[in-house]
């Protein structure tokens, strides 16, 4: 559901007036960076999860692709809370901050497009967590010699969109992308984990975005005393895994019930479930007791 206000270039504007020109530079040349942030309705109000970390990554992405944003991290954090309050958000909400080039001279490297910053919010439906069917994609994650994989840039997501569409066309729910060396990289917009011999296997970030949800899951696994191994993974290992799952801001923690039409694990998935239950408590602001050390990750609106 669309919310009535969007924060754009320092002020709140009505939803219908938050527009750009069809000749905007980023629409043609894909120099846009963004974040996906979640706010959750908890027992004691609405909480934004890891707002500061997401905005820091937005600024890092801007620097990587040469977008000069005029706002500090404190100003972006304040603008996010201002937008949530103006829209009277009181349910689970998705937050989309983004920075892009507006109307200017067309050309592959125009020097004059203005830089715009916007923050939008939308109501987010609850996810289904019964598990998904995944297909290994025919697309590969681009080499770090070809693009800036650590920037959360729109240009990187054509690869993701094509891999997901391929999976959907094959009757699956998501794609699993390998890197150019054949090792598991990530999902179309998610980080990958698997469980083997009761250990959580964590693939490296050689070609992948440094996911904030991934960071959180690693910290929670340490908190829950789940043994971890950080190493490369090849796809045939996943076929015989005890458990496998994707994590991300949008999908949270979602079990993979099959890969390439081969069933994975069982319906119990104890490690996935333990991480999911702990994660959902944390994002809803339930940080009393043993989760108190993570309390700084949530900001009440």
From TrEMBL:
It is an enzyme of class 2 (transferase). Its EC number is 2.6.1.42. Pfam families: Aminotran_4 (PF01063). Its cofactor is pyridoxal 5'-phosphate. It catalyses: L-valine + 2-oxoglutarate = 3-methyl-2-oxobutanoate + L-glutamate; L-leucine + 2-oxoglutarate = 4-methyl-2-oxopentanoate + L-glutamate; L-isoleucine + 2-oxoglutarate = (S)-3-methyl-2-oxopentanoate + L-glutamate. Gene3D superfamilies: 3.30.470.10, D-amino Acid Aminotransferase, subunit A, domain 2. InterPro entries: Aminotrans_IV, Aminotransferase-like, B_amino_transI, BCAT-like_C, BCAT-like_N, Class-IV_PLP-Dep_Aminotrnsfr. GO terms for molecular function: transaminase activity. Transmembrane segments: none annotated. Keywords: Amino-acid biosynthesis, Aminotransferase, Branched-chain amino acid biosynthesis, Pyridoxal phosphate, Transferase. SUPFAM superfamilies: D-aminoacid aminotransferase-like PLP-dependent enzymes. It comes from the Bacteria. Pathway: Amino-acid biosynthesis; L-valine biosynthesis; L-valine from pyruvate: step 4/4; Amino-acid biosynthesis; L-isoleucine biosynthesis; L-isoleucine from 2-oxobutanoate: step 4/4; Amino-acid biosynthesis; L-leucine biosynthesis; L-leucine from 3-methyl-2-oxobutanoate: step 4/4. Acts on leucine, isoleucine and valine. NCBIfam families: ilvE_I (TIGR01122), PRK06606.1 (NF005146). Belongs to the class-IV pyridoxal-phosphate-dependent aminotransferase family. This is Branched-chain-amino-acid aminotransferase. It comes from Helicobacter gastrofelis.
């Amino acid at each position: 559901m669309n919310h009535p206000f969007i924060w754009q270039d320092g002020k709140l504007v009505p939803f219908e007036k938050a527009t750009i020109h069809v000749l905007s530079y980023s629409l043609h040349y894909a120099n846009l960076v963004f974040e996906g942030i979640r706010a959750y309705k908890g027992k004691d109000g609405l909480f934004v999860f890891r707002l500061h970390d997401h905005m820091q990554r937005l600024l890092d992405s801007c620097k990587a692709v040469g977008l000069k944003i005029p706002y500090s991290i404190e100003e972006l954090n304040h603008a996010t809370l201002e937008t949530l309050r103006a829209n009277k958000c009181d349910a689970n909400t998705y937050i989309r901050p983004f920075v892009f080039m507006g109307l200017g001279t067309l050309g592959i490297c125009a020097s004059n497009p203005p830089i715009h910053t916007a923050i939008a919010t939308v109501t987010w439906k609850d996810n289904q967590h019964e598990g998904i069917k995944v297909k290994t994609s025919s697309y590969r994650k681009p080499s770090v010699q070809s693009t800036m994989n650590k920037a959360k840039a729109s240009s990187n997501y054509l690869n993701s969109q094509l891999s997901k569409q391929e999976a959907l066309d094959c009757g699956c729910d998501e794609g699993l992308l390998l890197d150019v060396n054949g090792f598991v990289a990530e999902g179309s917009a998610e980080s990958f984990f698997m469980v083997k011999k009761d250990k959580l296997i964590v693939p490296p970030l050689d070609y992948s975005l440094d996911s904030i949800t991934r960071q959180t899951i690693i910290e929670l696994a340490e908190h829950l005393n789940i043994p971890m191994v950080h190493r490369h993974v090849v796809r045939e290992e996943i076929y015989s895994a005890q458990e496998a799952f994707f994590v991300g801001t949008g999908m949270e923690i979602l079990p993979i019930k099959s890969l390439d039409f081969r069933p994975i694990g069982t319906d119990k998935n104890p490690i996935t479930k333990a991480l999911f239950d702990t994660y959902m408590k944390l994002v809803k602001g339930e940080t009393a007791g043993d989760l108190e050390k993570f309390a700084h990750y949530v900001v009440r609106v």
